[in-house]
Design goal:
The chain is an alpha/beta fold. It has helices spanning about 10-20, 35-45, 70-75, 95-105, 135-145, 160-170, 170-190, 195-215, 220-225, 230-240, 245-270; strands spanning about 5, 30, 50, 60-65, 85-90, 110-115, 125-130, 150-155. Helix 4 (about 95-105) links the parallel strand 5 (about 85-90) and strand 6.
């Protein structure tokens, strides 16, 4: 499978690195990137061909859109017509697949993906949505690309990508927020900063690994470490009294609503019929 990336930023680089580890060769991948410094870095780091010329990527079986959302409409309108068998895979946040198709003269084969930043260390997860014109072969191609840096799940309605954005796209920031707060609590209670950080990070890593391995419901896992009258119960009660679960729900809803707003704005401001 020949791949062409439009944009060579951090997420594109993470995907390229993952693809090379999964058996792709540098000759399979070309990158169109406007920054000469970034092109030089990509060539040195991964051995791929990278330059500002988009012509080189237009013959690829899959074209990955990895530019900033605000730039996407102009970039796509400048491209010549693509063949129906060429898959367009977008990782541009907030831009709807229907708008991408419209800017590409109604190209039928568009998949919109919402990866997250843990993809940078090969532990990401992406939500994917396909327009009706995407074939099973093209869906398999999209899967293979995103699974190079983690896992991939498909949604049936594009509006669900806004929820994916709120849960897994924005989710790492929620986790970092909790890590920050727990680490600071350890410091405030008298631990050295390095100790508080190590305890906090390893606790999050270990708890997530246990949840994945055990596959029990989170409520059951929580109950196992919450002894009646013990320290964990006291801490959980404090979280409940503070309304933390409700606040997390509000955060996810706010992020999903903003994702939907961005889709409307980017489609309206970026496209012309």
């Amino acid at each position: 499978m020949k791949l062409g990336f439009i944009g060579g930023g951090n997420m594109a680089a993470a995907m390229i690195g993952g693809l090379l580890q999964k058996g792709f060769t540098a000759a399979d991948i070309k990158v169109a990137e406007t920054s000469p410094q970034r092109c030089a870095w990509l060539a040195q780091e991964y051995g791929v061909t990278a330059n500002a010329n988009t012509d080189a990527i237009l013959t690829a079986e899959v074209i990955v859109l990895a530019v900033k959302p605000q730039q996407l409409a102009d970039v796509l309108r400048a491209l010549p017509a693509l063949k129906p068998e060429q898959l367009v895979l977008s990782i541009a946040a907030g831009v709807r697949a229907s708008d991408i198709s419209r800017w590409l003269d109604h190209h039928p084969a568009v998949v919109r993906a919402m990866p997250n930043t843990p993809a940078l260390v090969g532990a990401g997860i992406a939500g994917l949505f396909a327009l009706p014109g995407v074939t099973d072969k093209q869906k398999a191609q999209a899967n293979r690309i995103l699974e190079a840096v983690g896992q991939a799940v498909w949604v049936q309605q594009e509006a669900q990508i806004d929820v994916v954005t709120a849960i897994s796209g924005s989710g790492p920031a929620y986790v970092f927020y909790f890590i920050e707060a727990l680490e600071q609590a350890g410091i405030d209670l008298g631990l050295p900063a390095e100790t508080a950080r190590l305890l906090t990070l390893q606790t999050f890593f270990g708890a997530a690994a246990l949840a994945i391995e055990d596959q029990s419901a989170p409520a059951e896992l929580r109950a196992r470490v919450t002894s009646k009258g013990g320290t964990t119960e006291r801490g959980i009660l404090a979280l409940e009294e503070a309304g933390v679960a409700h606040a997390i729900g509000l955060a996810a809803r706010a992020a999903a609503e903003r994702a939907a707003e961005m889709g409307e704005l980017l489609g309206k401001d970026g496209g012309k019929d």
